[in-house]
Amino acid sequence: MYILGISAFYHDSAACLIKDGEIISAAQEERFTRIKHDHNFPKNAVKFCLRYANINVNDLSAVAFYDKPITKFSRILETYLSYPGKGIKSFLMSMPLWLREKLWMQDLISTELNYDGKILFPEHHESHAASAFYPSPFQRSAFLTIDGVGEWATSSFGVGNENKIHILSELHYPHSLGLLYSAFTYFTGFKVNSGEYKVMGLAPYGEPKYVDKIYNHLIDLKEDGSFKMNMEYFNYNTGLTMTNNKFAELFDGPPRKPETNLTQREMDLARSLQDVTEEIMIRMARHVKKVTNEKYLCLAGGVALNCVGNGKLLRENIFDDIWIQPAAGDAGGALGAALASYYMYFNKPLIKKDGRDLQKGSYLGIKYSDDEIQNILTKHKIPFHKVTQDELIEKISDEIANGKIIGWFNGKMEFGPRALGSRSIIGDARNPEMQKKMNLKIKFRESFRPFAPSVLAEKVSEWFELDRESPYMLLVADVKKEKQFPMTEEQKNLWGIEKLNVVRSEIPAVTHVDYSARIQTVNKKDNPIYHRLIERFFEKTGCPVIVNTSFNVRGEPIVESPLDAYKCFMRTEIDILTLENFILYKEEQPKFLDDLDWKKKYELD
């Protein structure tokens, strides 16, 4: 039984294919169109999923869409009607798209796919819950979903047991932790639905000086994690911005304009918001534990990408273990819709679990063969060296140790927002200049942004305060004390961005200003060649940790094809590009005549 899952028309459109409950393939539309967070119907992602399984639409038992458009439309309409005379501009902008496409989703899917079979519409948070519980390692667990908004729900919790999920309670719009976070993202000068992770990364530079103002004016938080927001300060109900003048008065002036200098205010706002977010997540989790008494917790929804909050939640030991869907946002809704339909609608038994999750490392996308890559390189007259896999590992581990920055393109593309060693830029975590060089000369982004470590799974507890795997870069933990360098009194007195250049540990390129790191553990079962590369680097240097960041420049989606990778390689100061078993050296490449002004094409986030 094949079921195709689709998410579309908000942000991060995606498609996923499952076969008898097994995840076969999944991809985000942005990777193919090169439009970051592409919200359009995922026709390229659908085409890939079907082609990968060697089937056509007539082989599908069902197509599942990740929410109920008519219910969502009624919420939008009711919201506008609740504010008579307000939001007319926003209303007139949103209605044509609804009346032209979104309301007629069944017809649209049938037309786009040339498909006349069964089309199912799980609820938005049901899709999130399904994406978290069914691929998790657990036969039974609680789940918690937190995002901006689905139809009405903004958070939900319940229990997954064998092949069924039961939602027990929901928090409803406009009271939303995801929208609260997005409001501060907007106010601090970053792009909503894209720049939230920047706010999280900025938080350690600040002090929690605005926490009391948030609790006293913006949000009435209850002991069980539920809350009400004071909508007098927000504009997202009917306006074209997230916050209003009253919000600006409360927080010492107007929103920061994008691309202007960051000030201590933005850092303090980020820290205050992060502290509030963590408190809400922990209170919600405690309430879920109290109500369900389950041993395990699964997380999904956009807020579940807040890996700092996830790490703190794990350390609270409320549950024995937690599992987070790596594509926790709307892209993962495609996967959840397909799984919810398979288990809930068709009532199929839960696929056998063996203690490891069923996400396959989230390596669910397209893979290019050596023949395909060689044809591309030859066609475009690109100089290359073909090597064996053993030679690749030997040469690239040496080059990392020598301080070179590598564009690493190998295996199936990752599903979700994180590069996990298939479409990654990698380097030496021991190099104190690596963070600055990668940020400014390769990613072309703000210098404060931290990078993640990829660490051998079997070595993680020797280098980080973490006693389990974190394969999807969704947990933050501190670098081990014995690997840290204590700060001098002078360094302790530094403020804000001045903290950036202090070398804090034996792996400074991946150690954030608060000694934390966003960890990816690499298991040889999930990605054997990436594991071998880090293992060989470890054998040569004594360090089982390298830097891993996504293979793209700022504002661009992660690269999908060898040609995408080559263009990124040539537009930046990446030293060496690997494409499967091919190595390309920058100094051997001909002059690159770019076919576009990419800094104008890719909208900064």
Brief descriptors of the model:
21 strands, 9-stranded mixed sheet, 605 residues, globular, 21 helices, alpha/beta, 5-stranded mixed sheet
According to DSSP, the number of beta strands is 21
- Average pLDDT, to the nearest integer? 94
Continuous helix count: 21
**Which value, in Å, is the CA radius of gyration?**
23 Å
Helix content: 25-40%
Q: Structural class of the helices, strands and pairings?
A: alpha/beta
- The N- to C-terminal Cα distance equals 40 Å
Question: What is the 3D form?
Answer: globular
Spans of at least 5 consecutive residues whose pLDDT stays below 50 are none
Characterize the main sheet.
Answer: 9 strands, mixed
Strand content: 15-25%
Which sequence of strands runs across the widest sheet?
Answer: 13-21-20-14-15-19-16-18-17
Structural summary, described in words:
This protein is α/β, with parallel strands linked by helices and 605 residues long. 36% of the residues lie in helices and 18% in strands. The protein has 21 helices and 21 strands. The protein has a 9-stranded mixed β-sheet with strand order 13-21-20-14-15-19-16-18-17, with helices on both faces. It has a 5-stranded mixed β-sheet with strand order 3-2-1-4-5. Strand 6 (140-146) and strand 7 (153-161) form a beta hairpin. Helix 7 (177-187) packs antiparallel against helix 11 (264-292), helix 11 packs across helix 12 and helix 15 (389-401) packs across helix 19 (528-541). It is globular, with a radius of gyration of 23 Å.
